[in-house]
Amino acid sequence: MKLSVENQVAQTSVNKIERIHKPTLEEFKYATLSYRQPVIVTGKIAEWKAFSLWSIDYLNKVVGNKEINVNISKNKIFTFDPETEDTFPSTKMQFTEFTDWINQEKKDEQYYYLQQQPIEISFPELFPDVEIPNYLNKNFFMIANLWIGTGGNTTPLHWDAARNLLSQVRGRKKILLFEPKQAAFLYPFPAHSKTPHMSYLNIDKPDFDKFPKFQKAKYIECLLEPGEMLFIPAFWWHHVYSLDRVNIAVNFWWQADWKDYFAPQARRILVHNPKQGWDIFKNLVGKFLTKNR
After folding, report:
1. Is 265 exposed, middle or buried (0-12, 13-18, 19+ CB in 10 A)?
2. Which residues does the UniProt record annotate as the domain JmjC (predicted)?
């Protein structure tokens, strides 16, 4: 990614992402400015069974020949088509067939990525190997997702309307993070589209003639090592590169709270879709009442 000097990390309001070792809940809230700023947690994943057990051989033994759904890409970029907004294509295969493909390190005409699979539903046999972190309110917990792929896979620039703990079990990930206020420079899909959380930008080969405002964007980069968790606040833009031959991660989503919806892209969508805004409001109120009974 080549941006002008004015856009480098030193110019962001968050100069670097702090690493904190096995923080308490209060320490986590303090480090994240009450869930508004990214932070990397070390030491917690080492307590998981997954951290010591999840080799390819172990996964094959436990999961076996279960049929799974994997996404497909011809260039290792797994995204939505900006013209048609169609989701990435997918195919079904046996789990061991998928892991054999990973082990063989083939340079095929197409690449596979097991993305965003709810562990408790799709891989209940693996769910006991992970622990849901206690850093966010359990009443707002949404889901834990499994990601398995190879080095070179890229999840392009997007945001999630949820608080996210990206937990790296095997391999490393490089993540570029943009604060919500950078949305004006990041060319999101239309608010009324099926994928308003995605960006038109190709960060690795930016077309500044077509997207000139991107030159003003400011970002922060971090390298997530095995055994580390990255907290990504709701509505923060992130672009994720998987590194190393075997790459396994689990991400946890918690519902955003009402303060998170002051983010520019959230307001933009709610203005264009009032019904969605009302549904979100009712859901948040319901969660709040449940929490305070």
Report:
1. buried
2. 121-271
Cβ–Cβ under 8 Å, residues 234 and 260: yes
Instruction: Please check whether residue 175 is in contact with residue 249, taking contact to mean a CB–CB distance below 8 angstroms.
Output: no
Q: What are 263-283's pLDDT values in tens digits?
A: 888 788 777 776 665 565 555
C-beta separation of 275 from 282 below 8 A = no
Contacts of 252 (CB under 8 A, 6+ apart): 132, 133, 141, 143, 144, 145, 164, 165, 167
Token duo for residue 122: 């799709």
Q: Which of 198, 163, 190, 231 is nearest to 77 (CA)?
A: 198
Sign of the Cα pseudo-torsion (285, 287, 289, 292, in order): negative
**Is 40 or 3 the better-scoring residue by pLDDT?**
40
| 3-state DSSP assignment of residue 64 | coil
- pTM of the predicted structure, to 2 decimals: 0.88
- The DSSP letter of residue 142 is E
Pick the closest to residue 235 from 151, 131, 153, 164 (CA basis).
Answer: 164
CATH fold group of domain 5-257: Jelly Rolls (2.60.120)
Tokens of 118: 């709810």
- Annotated domain spans of the chain: 5-257
Rg (Cα) of the chain, in Å, rounded?
Answer: 19
Q: What is the dihedral of CA 285, 39, 172, 175, to 10 degrees?
A: 80
pLDDT of residue 269: 74
Q: Is 277 exposed, middle or buried (0-12, 13-18, 19+ CB in 10 A)?
A: middle
